[in-house]
């Protein structure tokens, strides 16, 4: 297995590939504790679809796959596959609560547009994957 491990932030260390907010880490810790999976982390990935072209996905995962980038931030293990990493580099996973409930979201500096519900996005110059991305937020 060839995984890249990014250390916890400290003085003079370059920006992490991906990070998690303090509130996001608290919520993730509670979910991970309930998962029953030992040494599990939060896998963050990109898939095609959604109203803006790409859609975020997250899952509790106790597997480290070949090519994964693994970042430990605020005590949470974040796993990103090699195909998703370029689109997620510099992003922060956060947890937001609103009148509709709450959930994880991704603050992505690479996104040039996103849908109103914050679950999908597009980057500069990218088209929606073939035949996808024309629906509204309800089509995720």
From TrEMBL:
GO terms for biological process: iron-sulfur cluster assembly. This is HesB/YadR/YfhF. Gene3D superfamilies: HesB-like domain. InterPro entries: ATAP, ATAP_core_dom, FeS_cluster_insertion_CS, HesB-like_dom_sf. It comes from the Bacteria. Residues 26-118 form the Core domain. One of its GO terms (molecular function) is iron ion binding. PANTHER family: IRON-SULFUR CLUSTER ASSEMBLY 2 HOMOLOG, MITOCHONDRIAL (PTHR43011). PROSITE patterns: HESB (PS01152).
